[in-house]
Amino acid sequence: MYQPPTAHVIDPSTGHLSAATGRYEKRLSDLAGLYADTGAFETLTAENPDRIVYVVHEVRPQQETGDLIFGTTWMEPGRVGQEFFMTRGHIHATGNRPETYYGESGEGVMLLESPEGETRALEIRPRVMVYVPPMWIHRSVNTGPEPLVMSFCYPSDSGQDYGIIERSGGMAKRIVAGPEGWEAIGNAAYRPRTRAEIDAVLATAA
Ligand SMILES: O=P(O)(O)OC[C@H]1O[C@](O)(CO)[C@@H](O)[C@@H]1O
Ligand SMILES: [Fe+2]
């Protein structure tokens, strides 16, 4: 009747998670429309559409509400034009579900955005725990020269809503190479959410 307790070994350099129940990859060809420099994206994709940008290993429990999903995200270093490799990004479909990310190896930025469009960019590296509070859109960015590996944990009834980023033309900020390593610049294609859109996001809280 009870699920058995389990222990899992994380390899900080590869993101391998022992006894994971699932694994998926995102390749360049899965990430069309994310990057500002469409020419650079097409060139990279033509070279190798199957190039892996990130890999997720996860453990999903059998039961839903009240349980947790946890795992690792391994992200390749790289850029599309000036913009660093990043995850697709999402808000949780049940918007008030939070998440934690812990740096295992490499360095990067957790880019966060509220429904109203307020932005935060938090650096993550080994031994840094980043807390993504309820209602924040989140995307991981590898700003370093090595793979970025993080472990994550979030409630199992969270879900992911990717449309929130698509509908606004991306996130308000883009993380690009700058003189100091990385910098956040405005996304020219960004369309702020209307009051009705914000209210619809807030209404997903449960
Ligand atoms: O779902 P995305 O935006 O492609 O990013 C993947 C990351 O987000 C998660 O879905 C967790 O929120 C993890 O699987 C992984 O860390
Ligand atoms: Fe998430």
Characterization of the model:
Helices cover 11% and strands 36% of the residues. The protein contains 3 helices and 13 strands. A hairpin with a 5-residue loop joins strand 7 (108-113) and strand 8 (119-124). The protein starts with 21 loop residues before the first strand and ends with a helix. 6-O-phosphono-beta-D-fructofuranose binds next to strand 2 and strand 11.
Short description:
This protein has three helices and 13 strands.
Q: What key attributes describe this structure?
A:
single chain; 206 residues; mainly beta; Jelly Rolls; three-stranded antiparallel beta sheet; globular; binds 6-O-phosphono-beta-D-fructofuranose; binds fe (ii) ion; gluconeogenesis; glucose-6-phosphate isomerase; EC 5.3.1.9; glycolysis; isomerase
Helix/strand-derived category reads: mainly beta
User: Gap between N and C termini, in Å?
Assistant: 27 Å
What is the residue-mean pLDDT, rounded to a whole number?
Answer: 97
Shape: globular
Count of structural domains:
1
The major pleated sheet works out as: 6 strands, antiparallel
Domain Glucose-6-phosphate isomerase prokaryote: 26-183
Protein name: glucose-6-phosphate isomerase
GO cellular component, one term: cytoplasm
Organism: Sagittula stellata (strain ATCC 700073 / DSM 11524 / E-37)
